Amino acid sequence: MDLLVVVPHPDDETFGAGGALLLAKEAGLRTGILTLTQGEAGRTLGLCPPEALGEVRRKELARAAEILGVDFLEVLSFPNGLPQGAEGGERGRASGESLLDHPEAEAAIRERLLALRPRYLITFPPDGINGHPDHVAASRYATQAAQGLAQVVYFVRPDGPYPVTHRLRLPDWALARKLQALAQHKTQALSVLAFLERHPERLWTETFHQVGAEGLKEGPWW
């Protein structure tokens, strides 16, 4: 395994690193996705009963992963927490916990790293980009689990607190497939639309911070 994306929810993989997964696969690398929750607390948009959302989102992720061409996909079942101020809209079942309540997720990630031996692990930066507790927890656990095993790379905002060390500008074919992958996450269409409204440029330009690297490189780090 060359590149493993570790995120809390189905759809995070495509928002943050869909283009990187596509370009790495095109370059002949082996890629994978590990999500720590099933995303069972997200919005349903009336497309399924609340209790079925986790399974529906697993299937949405499987379709997206096929489009992204990954070699490995696994979905764990730690609880999906809600973002601060989450309200309105029909949601799936939330337990009241988040990933922050489950530090044992670090050991689960490390177990996969030991088995897969990826050279690079991609995840959220420490602030979770938007402060979502699951994003923050996933970054913390993945970064700690990767010590001595994989080089950590964060997908970051171009204007955020973590300096961009690598910028990927997606060719047309990769942008088209990234959009197709995003479209598989139908239950999360409002999140997709909000992303398109706020950050349209991040569809075709993905920015990353490689831990320990300096300067800016146009292109991949692998």
Automatic annotation (TrEMBL):
Residue ranges of coiled coil: none
Looking up SUPFAM superfamilies in the UniProt record yields: LmbE-like (SSF102588)
The highest taxon in the source lineage is Bacteria
Q: What Enzyme Commission number(s) apply to this enzyme?
A: 3.5.1.-
One GO MF term: hydrolase activity
Q: Which UniProt keywords apply?
A: Hydrolase
Keyword Hydrolase tagged: yes
Question: What PANTHER family does the entry give?
Answer: N-ACETYLGLUCOSAMINYL-PHOSPHATIDYLINOSITOL DE-N-ACETYLASE, N-ACETYLGLUCOSAMINYL-PHOSPHATIDYLINOSITOL DE-N-ACETYLASE-RELATED
The protein's name is PIG-L deacetylase family protein
Organism, as annotated: Thermus composti
